[in-house]
Amino acid sequence: MAASPVLLMLLRHGIAEALSASRPDEDRRLTGEGKRRVREVAAGMRALELPVEAILTSPLRRAEETARIVAEVYERIGGLEVTRALAPGSGADKVFAALSSCTSAAGVVLVGHEPDLGELASTLLAGTPGLLHLQLKKAGLVGITVASLPPRGAGILEFLLTPGQLRRIARGA
User: Fold this and answer.
1) What is the total count of domains within the chain?
2) Model-level pTM?
3) How do strand 141-146 and strand 6-12 relate by DSSP bridges?
4) Is residue 30 in some structural domain?
5) Which terminus of the chain has fewer Cβ atoms in its 10 Å neighbourhood, N or C?
6) Is residue 28 included in any domain, yes or no?
């Protein structure tokens, strides 16, 4: 039996605290505005009826907080997996390996960072990290359908949504 297509949704973390000499980059939290905007973005995702069945996130605090908000909005509190594969600089092969835990999901959200998510999107769509130049704004979302997990061929770009577009969709729902 052929595998079912999977919608991979690459979500950049929300607005985070500024870099500080007193706190490591890994510990930077979402700001109050960042939390509010991510909640609205997640509400827009839900209004679009995007199939969020699994959520994988970078272990950096701002990404994990973003993922938890998406999980809350989708009422999937237990459906969150923290993985080093989405930490900055990890690369597509580690992400593909991490996706092995999601083989039965119709939709997977990957919460991470730039430029890594843009490079991952390029790899999924064109097979090479730098061929397509996609840059996600904070709390921006790109959706790519792949034939199977782990991805073995080129995916199909379904959407590229800015946080403003997702917030407007949420307000209109």
Assistant:
1) 1
2) 0.95
3) antiparallel
4) yes
5) N
6) yes
